[in-house]
Amino acid sequence: MCTQSPVRSRGLIYPTISRATRPGLLALARLLLGFVIFPAIALHAQPTDHPPDTLEARLLACAACHGRQGQGTDNDYFPRLAGKPVGYLMNQLVAFRDGRRRYPPMNYLLEYTPDAYLQQISAYFAALRPPQVPQAVADASPALLARGRLLVTEGDAGRGVPACAHCHGNKLTGMEPAIPGLVGLHASYISAQLGAWRYGTRTAAAPDCMQFVAGSLTESDVSAVAAWLASLPIPPDPSPVARGTLPMPLVCGSEPN
Ligand code: HEC
Ligand code: HEC
To answer: Is the minimum distance from the CB of 15 to ligand 1 under 6 angstroms?
Structure first.
């Protein structure tokens, strides 16, 4: 029901939902999500055989694109949400609501959603631990994968590329409260995000360390890290490491230390 075709916009690839399904799907999703904002209206309008108005039921609004448990889908551009640090998810929801991160269906869905509700949604997905969605095997050469592994685990000091693992963790499951894990994401999604930072269409709180990191990578570095990260299985315990336990070679405005 949510079939997408990637479109290019300013050099970036974005997923779109087909014109036929978009208005109906999104209107329905917004209606589901909106129950909590106008609970009195929702309760009043519902006949008694309506399913209970739980947070889980409302978040079915997100299921078509993120999976029922936030586990992700086989779509190349729709990210996994489950198990990411709560502060990270909150920062993203606020960024979509306020237009600092652009993806029209998400911007539309979250418009006018109050912080308190976004916090509840973030806590809900952060606590879930669904099994991994099988990934399509990346069509990447062993040399590209080896290059990706090196950049992620050690960086490239000569060119000023910091090791991703120094902030995202040795197991790449992220760090509390606001650095996300990088496992369980599709290669196309990872490259699109790094591209968005480079083009300035995705920004985080200043100093925006990821803008610096993305700017230090060449196109082929991006392909290499994306391919290697996407090839990793999610570890048995995908929880982010505790706050302050990683060296963090740069200051990040979104990650208080
Ligand atoms: C029509 C499909 C669609 C729907 C419905 C949708 N999302 Fe998304 N969501 C996306 C896409 C695509 C992205 C990545 C956008 C980008 O390129 O930055 C995204 C990104 C996100 C992110 C950031 C993830 C990350 O790792 O940075 C969060 C959090 C999120 N969505 C939460 C939600 C929630 C909560 C709902 C339901 C209220 C929802 N989404 C509904 C498609 C959707
Ligand atoms: C200095 C710390 C730091 C380093 C080094 C770092 N990151 Fe990040 N990364 C962050 C923070 C903080 C965020 C969250 C930004 C936000 O709130 O949008 C992030 C977010 C991301 C995201 C978005 C994930 C999602 O689900 O949308 C990707 C992709 C990413 N980093 C990739 C990398 C790669 C690849 C490297 C290494 C080349 C790297 N990062 C190095 C701190 C870092």
So the answer is: yes
